[in-house]
Write the structure tokens for this entry.
Amino acid sequence: MAHKYPNILIHLVFSTKERAKLIPTELLPRLAKYFAGIGRNHGIPVLAVGGISNHVHLLIVLPSDMTPAKAVQVLKANSSRWIRQHGITFTWQEGYGAFSVSSSNKAAVVDYIEHQAEHHRVRSYETEFEAMIRKSGMQFDGDETFG
């Protein structure tokens, strides 16, 4: 077959360095648009972006010729540069979470990502991330993950 029809949906999660509250609330909507622009420029469709001051969630369509690590590197490098241009001393934490999403669950994940502020009124980033790791069936080591 000569054509490619990838449908690789990935829910990405990554935090600020040491999970510090570095992203101003008023910048979050513009950051979401900037992530979408980064995606357009690099062939990584960004379907949803959400977050709070210390982390972000993105739902992307992973291109067939790109690894998740490369997609994260592109998104982090370009977004951190943009945040620093706004006068903020900024760095993303090393590492990330990348969780596969089935097409049938896409709408639920988009809704979850777009409502991060509400989720984090009652749940910390650390609790949320641990739950995502465990739900995916992966081993969780809090010391290794959160240092």
